[in-house]
UniProtKB/TrEMBL annotation:
GO terms for molecular function: monoatomic cation transmembrane transporter activity. It is found in: Cell membrane. GO terms for cellular component: plasma membrane. This is TrkH family potassium uptake protein. Pfam families: TrkH (PF02386). InterPro entries: Cat_transpt. GO terms for biological process: metal ion transport.
Length: 442
């Protein structure tokens, strides 16, 4: 029991408990439209994907799962989006230890540093933003579906709520078999979903900072500046790259007018940041578009939001380190501030661990599956970064490969640093240091 009092161990345990409960719920006969028990692997994979707010599926959500099953999935990705991390953070505060080094390590992939005095304010912000955004977006989507698509009020409201909550939590689950392809030219459907994904992918520390400083750039913390500037840069790069590479592709943007191309290129520059909805057929993307998606998915969104990936701040810390080495500068930093060595080591550790896990998983699946390597790599990055986009191979993977993908989703959501620290929690700092020596690098 003592081990569970440490938030580092509590976080993965809570996630595992949610997955177990979700698997049980989806294994019930009335969770499926057929009234037959779902296979264990199907229930486990879906529950893991929902709790990890990923969106990868092995069965079609609207046709395979009943209303009960779909509601269970919605509750799972709502909990997985922010509830468990909030509970773990509160636990660390309530036991009187504040948010110290271990807690910061446990949650640094999920959020920026959070002081004890800020906890209540941030939790109020999380609650208010969640209720407000999900309700408003649900109303907008439901109204659009009723007015423009003649959808019955009950169905429209359900579709609006499901997609709103899914977008807010960056889950990528949809109650449409083709995700949002049926609305690829509708800015009133794609627009609110894009806004929601971008907002929550910034992270709650950023929203809190922006709220308290009232949009005054000079008063923003370095974390907020890096996250906002990095998000804008990545969205712009993604938009221009997708627009250029897919402009004439007959399977994606080719048949659309200029407005449709701009809308869908914008949409697909946002979704790889960890949302997982698609308004275009991902399997029809050109190779260069898939490469851009690799990068966008791996980086992900901001800390302490519902995004996955190594996070924007991690990526730009590494970028600043490389830039400082190239320019011969002593310190690495951005916006007139330098990074501490601890932050640089954490950024490097997160990136190396993440890339290593993706490499191992991709290699294993490629060795047991005849599927193309680029599709497998896409699937693994999408799973680890809790994105949910797929080229359509998820259901075709062998059972052991699906288990690997489920493990990637779990580790990607919990965080590589959290898992590594939890496993090595008993380790202690050495009371000595070895002599320093410089090997040749490069």
């Amino acid at each position: 029991m003592r081990g569970l009092r440490d938030p580092i161990r509590l976080i993965p345990v809570l996630f595992l408990c949610a997955i177990v409960v979700g698997t049980i719920l989806l294994s019930l006969p009335f969770a499926t439209t057929s009234g037959v028990h779902a296979p264990f692997l199907t229930a486990l994979f879906t529950a893991t994907s929902a709790v990890a707010v990923t969106g990868l599926i092995v069965v079609d959500t609207p046709t395979y799962w009943s209303v009960f099953g779909q509601v269970s999935i919605l509750l799972m990705f709502q909990i997985g989006g922010f509830g468990i991390m909030t509970a773990a953070t509160l636990f660390g505060l309530m036991v009187g230890r504040g948010v110290g080094l271990r807690e910061r390590m446990a949650t640094q992939v999920e959020r920026n540093r959070l002081e004890t005095g800020d906890a209540a304010s941030v939790l109020r912000l999380i609650f208010a933003v969640t209720l407000t955004v999900e309700a408003l977006v649900a109303i907008i989507l439901a109204a659009r579906l009723m007015l423009a698509y003649d959808m019955p009020a009950g169905n429209a409201l359900w579709h609006g709520v499901f997609h709103s909550v899914s977008a807010f939590n960056n889950a990528g689950f949809s109650v449409n078999s083709d995700s949002l392809i049926g609305y690829q030219t509708d800015v009133y459907i794609l627009g609110p979903i894009m806004f929601t994904v971008v907002l929550t992918a910034l992270g709650f520390p950023v929203l809190q900072d922006i709220r308290t400083t009232r949009l005054r750039w000079r008063r923003w913390t370095l974390h907020t500046k890096v996250t906002v500037a990095g998000t804008v840069a990545l969205l712009l790069v993604g938009f221009l790259s997708i627009l250029a590479s897919e402009w004439y592709n007959p399977g994606t943007l080719g048949p659309m007018d200029v407005g449709g191309k701009v809308l869908n290129a914008s949409f697909h520059s946002v979704m790889p940041r960890t949302a997982g909805f698609n308004s275009l057929d991902v399997s029809a993307f050109h190779d260069e578009t898939l490469m851009v998606n690799f990068i966008l998915m791996f980086v992900g969104g901001g800390s302490a939001g519902t995004a996955g990936g190594i996070k924007v701040t991690t990526f730009f810390v590494l970028f600043a380190i490389v830039l400082s080495e190239v320019l011969g500068r002593r310190d690495a930093g951005l916006f007139g501030r330098r990074f501490g060595k601890e932050i640089e080591r954490q950024a490097l550790s997160v990136t190396v661990l993440s890339a290593s896990l993706i490499f191992v998983a991709t290699t294993y699946i490629a060795s047991i599956s005849p599927l193309p390597l680029d599709d497998i790599l896409f699937e693994c990055i999408s799973a680890f970064s809790t994105v949910g986009l797929s080229t359509g191979i998820t259901a075709d993977l062998p059972p052991s490969a699906q288990l690997v993908i489920a493990a990637l989703m779990f580790i990607g959501r919990v965080g590589t640093i959290t898992v590594a620290t939890a496993l090595a929690l008993g380790g202690r700092e050495r009371p000595y240091r070895y002599p320093e020596e410089s090997p040749i690098v490069g």
